[in-house]
Amino acid sequence: MDLDPPPPAALSRPTRRILVPDSSPYDLEQLAGSWEGRSKVNRLLFVANSSPSLAGPALTLALAAIKEATLDVPLYENTFHMYRQHISAIESGDEQDPTAVAWHGSVKGNEVSLDREWIDKAKREAQSGLDKLEVELKGYMTNLIKESIRMGHRDLARFQYRIGDLQGAVRSYTKSREFCTTSQHVLEMCLGVIEIALDMSNYAFVRNYVVKAESAVDAAQASTNGNKSRAAPVNLPGMVAPAQDPIEAAKEKERKIVHERLTVAGGVAFLGSGAFDKAARAFTDIGSEALNAPVGHFIPPADVALYAVLTGLACFDRTQIRARLLENANLRPFLDLEPYLRDIVRAFYDSKFKEGLELLHRHSVRRSRSHLPHPSSSRAALLTRERIKLQHRPLLDVHLAPHLSALHKLIRSRALLAYFQPFASVSLARMAAAFGTDEASQHPEIVELIATGQLKARIDSAHGVLVAKRKDARGEAFRHALDEGEKMQKRASASQLRSVPPCGFLQGLEKSENLGELTPGSRGHRMKLLQADIVVKPAKGGSGQQQHLSVQEA
Predict the structure, then answer these.
(1) 255-422 CATH fold
(2) What is the pTM of this model?
(3) Domain 423-468 CATH (choose: 1.10.10.10, 1.20.1250.20, 1.25.40.10, 3.40.980.10)
(4) What is the pLDDT of residues 345-385, one digit of tens each?
């Protein structure tokens, strides 16, 4: 099974222009320190393609990361071409962003040069390593040893991933599935494919292999539980309970770490595919075992906190915000890495929508130096820096940026609904002031919520108020009572028609000469019996002159 190839690195000027001023606390080097391997390269290239202000530093870090973590010569050459093209644009005047120009002035004369020595060395290592692994795999295939064949495919996949052959790496991983003999082998294969699929942003493939990996974990857990039950130690009264086996404790911790990694990968897949509610539940269900583990998660812990807060505010109601974001003990270590995120959640939970939205609003990152708070106001300065930091982080995040506008719209819509819920009517001017905007800007949002049925209200333009559509509870109760009365009448009439009539009532029935039909004494009653699907027959062996007849339903 093949993955869709990643789009080639854009060699032209970036289509999105996110300007990051010098005053911004967005620290690219600090963030890049939390990224690893090819994921670090992909994230840096995304930043370079999105922001001309950070393109120079991002490409410089990307070139170093490629040489450190990969043997991908084509990627290195393409990245270097982007680097030189960015410098040429600044020198020719095509790129006039002040931050980019200032960066060029600081590195002028010390620009990165093409490392041909590394290119030659990487090509030799890539070719020799690939030949060696393919020869070893052919030998394993000849000997027909399943475990050796599986390990040969696995090692080949890892090396192909390192040299940039992502399609070949996926094929080698999937070929090893045939030779997996334990659930642990299947899990190892799935984790390798998930890592590649995340780097390629193929979220459907990630979700598919997360499900397979979870099945492998469950199978391994069931096997372990079965072995424990068969070898359970005897613990008689008065005996000290045996201590937990250190090996079993280590295995249990490893299972928790794997489960958390799969939960994060599934959350990223849901986020990338636009299923924000499922993503929010995944990110808030995560544990903290893998936080300090050597393998860690597929994404940095700070990103887990950011994704959890944004998707949670977009999808959770007030009760869920408290339970899953504010009082979630498992999420707390992640939020401690980004304290300002907790302030945002608290603002929305306390219905301080203006304060909460200001932290998410784009205008907070476009302030000039003259509008920054006075240095003596440390709290205000910190709040402003956090606003800027928050705004640039999502915009320059490879997984979150494509969905940021949709998430902001959902967050604002949910805030509008929460604000209006306790009111029968509210002034539009007062509502706009509560959200830090004006009536003209807020009017289309309210109209859209009413049109989609999310907001049960109407706009009174003459008086400038929003009026809730309240149900008449008393009228509804009367209508319900009348409907139930009519239903009871119909059921009672049908029950009477199907009951056995008294003997004296049918004495007037006489047998007709035409095909043995019965003719009632009352034609109207005969029609009612026919309408009720009741067939009247004479008693067995009797005649129409008998004192009683039997009545039978068809």
Answers:
(1) 1.25.40
(2) 0.76
(3) 1.10.10.10
(4) 999 999 989 888 887 764 333 333 333 333 334 444 443 44
